[in-house]
From TrEMBL:
<feature type="signal peptide">
    <location>
        <begin position="1"/>
        <end position="21"/>
    </location>
</feature>
<protein>
    <submittedName>
        <fullName>MipA/OmpV family protein</fullName>
    </submittedName>
</protein>
<keyword id="KW-0472">Membrane</keyword>
<dbReference type="InterPro" id="IPR010583">
    <property type="entry name" value="MipA"/>
</dbReference>
<comment type="similarity">
    <text>Belongs to the MipA/OmpV family.</text>
</comment>
<keyword id="KW-0732">Signal</keyword>
<dbReference type="Pfam" id="PF06629">
    <property type="entry name" value="MipA"/>
</dbReference>
<keyword id="KW-0998">Cell outer membrane</keyword>
C-alpha cells in the first residue's frame, strides 16, 4: 500500500508519499541528491506492529522541470510564485500477508494471514500546490493506478506552515487528509467472503470516503552547501470506514524518519 517505508515516513514533511511528486520545484540549475536513512511506521494501515526500513535515496532534478527519483518517481513539474504542478509515473507497493525481515527491514504482516496479497501497481501522480503569501501552502495530489486498477484511486489534501526559516535550520508543521474511492477502501480495508473464511476476520465492505489524517513536524539541518540532515516525526489516524475495519487494530500510530543527504 505504500512505497518503500523510508520514503513513506519522509513524506510526513508534506503529504503522503504518494502525493509528494510536486514537493520539489524545478531548479534553476540541475541537481543530483543522494542519501540514506531509516524510518519507522505501521506494517500496514491499522497494524498493531511498527516496522523499520532502511533505504537509499537518489533524486535527479533537471532545470527544465524533469525529475527522476526513488522517492518522487519519474515526471515533470513547473511552478510560478503562487502555483506549482507536476505529473509523474510512480509505484504503489504490494501488501503481503506474511511477515518478512531482511537486514533489519520489515515487510508484510502475519496479522493479515489469510487475506492474500495486494499486488504492486504503477500509478500516475498528479500534484498541485498553492502558496499563501510567504507562509502557508495548500497541496492536492491525485493517485491513479495504471495497472491493478481494481485497487482504486486516492486523493490527498494537505497544508504546510513554516515555523522556522533560518540559514542552517528550517522547521515546518503539516497536516493532511486522504480520500479513497470505493475500490481503494475495499482493497486496503475491506474483507471479502473468501478472505473472511481464510483469515477469520468479519466480512466488511467499506464505502468511499476520507480514510486517514496526518499531523507531522519536519526539521531540516543544513550542515553546509552540500550536506543536510532531514528529520520527521508525526502521527496518523484512520477515519470513517477505515477506522471501523476489522483490519484496523490500531487507529492512531506514530511515524518518523531520519535521512542524511548530499546534493551536487
Amino acid at each position: 500500500m505504500k512505497y518503500r517505508l523510508l520514503f513513506s515516513c519522509l513524506a510526513l514533511a508534506g503529504l503522503s508519499l504518494n502525493a509528494s511528486a510536486a514537493d520539489a520545484p524545478p531548479a534553476k540549475t540541475s541537481t543530483l541528491t543522494i542519501g540514506a536513512g531509516v524510518g519507522v511506521s505501521p506494517r500496514f494501515a491499522g497494524s498493531k506492529e511498527n516496522q523499520v526500513g532502511l533505504a537509499p535515496l537518489l533524486d535527479y532534478q533537471h532545470e527544465s522541470g524533469f525529475f527522476a527519483s526513488t522517492m518522487r518517481g519519474v515526471g515533470w513539474g513547473t511552478e510560478t510564485d503562487v502555483f506549482k504542478f507536476s505529473a509523474a509515473l510512480g509505484a504503489r507497493g504490494e501488501r503481503s500477508d506474511k511477515k518478512r525481515n531482511v537486514l533489519g527491514t520489515g515487510g508484510g504482516s502475519d496479522e493479515l494471514k489469510g487475506m492474500g496479497k495486494v499486488k504492486a501497481s504503477a500509478v500516475g501522480l498528479f500534484s498541485a500546490g498553492f502558496k499563501l503569501g510567504d507562509s502557508a501552502e495548500l497541496r492536492a495530489a491525485l493517485e491513479l493506478p495504471l495497472t491493478q486498477r481494481e485497487n482504486g484511486r486516492a486523493l490527498h489534501l494537505g497544508a504546510e506552515l513554516p515555523l522556522l526559516q533560518g540559514k542552517q535550520d528550517s522547521l515546518s508543521l503539516s497536516a493532511s487528509a486522504s480520500y479513497g474511492d470505493a475500490k481503494y477502501l475495499r482493497t486496503y480495508f475491506g474483507v471479502t467472503p473468501t478472505q473472511s473464511a481464510a483469515s477469520g476476520y468479519a466480512l466488511f465492505t467499506p464505502k468511499a470516503g476520507f480514510y486517514k489524517t496526518e499531523l507531522n513536524l519536519a526539521w531540516t539541518h543544513r550542515v553546509d552547501d552540500h550536506w543536510s540532515v532531514v528529520t520527521t516525526g508525526g502521527v496518523s489516524h484512520l477515519l470513517g470506514d477505515a477506522g471501523k475495519s476489522p483490519l484496523a487494530r490500531r487507529k492512531t500510530a506514530p511515524e518518523g524518519a531520519v535521512l542524511l543527504t548530499y546534493t551536487y
